[in-house]
Design brief:
Elements: H1 3-10, H2 16-22, E1 27-31, E2 36-38, E3 47-52, E4 55-58, E5 68-72, E6 77-78, H3 80-85, E7 92-95, E8 99-104, H4 106-115, H5 117-141, H6 146-163, E9 180-182, H7 186-193, H8 197-209, E10 213-216, E11 219-222, H9 225-237, H10 247-258
Antiparallel strand pairs: 1-8, 2-7, 3-6, 3-8, 4-5, 4-7, 9-11, 10-11
Length: 261
């Protein structure tokens, strides 16, 4: 018996009987960056937990670019909407980093939803919270300036990582001193933002010059988290109005907004 899998199921609000029934069916898988986990229209989709890593849900397009609508960080679950509906996968899921997953068969999830009230409540809450994250990524598809796409893409990535509480050195440290480090290739970052690798390099200079992040080979470190939060607020408040705003001006506005007295 995996203690981690047992605790994972108990944290879902399942009864002891349900946990013991589902536990033997939990499947573990390991994937590499850029590896597709589930293709669109996959049948019998399992409900999937990210034990480690970062996964992107996206709609496949005729171009090589992703059309992402949600990033799932470590500790997140994904696929519940299609699992609940017992329908084929409506999107594709690809690894942004090395990923380790735990999967529960959809049939057992649906059975538990019919008999476990606390579990049903948790899943419904998760689906509602997911809706806001999907709306955030929908904004990304409406921005056509490559530099702004990069700034928003990075902002949504930070937001997803914060949701998973992947902060360093400690959640007890002053918020402004906390950092988020992500082992991700810049080619994958560029694809996530829907820009070329060269366009990503140009756009990155704005948050780097402002001290908001550091880009290294194979990883990026996000700093000054309050400013990234204010960037998300600015994008949410007027996504269309920002179309004519330069990336440097947007970063400057967020800095002023975050530290205004």
């Amino acid at each position: 018996m995996s203690i981690h899998s047992y605790n994972l199921l108990k944290d879902l609000g399942l009864s002891q009987a349900a946990v013991l029934r589902i536990l033997p069916t939990v499947n573990e898988q390991v994937y590499q960056p850029e590896q597709v986990i589930y293709r669109r229209a996959t049948e019998d989709l399992p409900w999937t937990h990210i034990a480690s890593g970062l996964v992107c849900a996206y709609l496949p397009s005729e171009s090589t670019d992703m059309e992402p609508f949600c990033v799932h960080p470590q500790g997140d679950w994904f696929g519940e909407t299609d699992v609940v509906r017992n329908s084929p996968s409506t999107c594709e899921y690809v690894c942004l980093t090395d990923v380790r997953l735990k999967q529960i068969p959809g049939t057992l999830v649906r059975a538990a939803l019919n008999s476990e009230a606390q579990f049903e409540h948790l899943v419904l809450q998760l689906m509602a919270a997911r809706h806001q994250r999907v709306l955030n990524f929908t904004t990304l598809s409406r921005i056509h300036t490559s530099e702004l796409r990069v700034i928003l893409g990075l902002t949504l990535l930070v937001n997803s990582l914060q949701a998973a509480e992947l902060v360093s050195p400690s959640p007890m440290a002053p918020f402004a001193d906390q950092t988020l480090e992500l082992p991700i290739k810049q080619s994958i970052l560029a694809s996530l933002c829907g820009v070329s690798r060269s366009a990503l390099s140009i756009a990155l200079r704005h948050p780097i010059d402002a001290g908001l992040c550091k880009a290294h080979y194979g990883r990026i470190v996000f700093m000054q988290l309050p400013i990234w939060e204010k960037l998300l607020v600015l994008f949410r408040s007027s996504p269309v109005g920002l179309a004519n705003t330069s990336a440097s001006r947007l970063v400057q506005q967020a800095v002023e907004f975050a530290y205004a007295v």
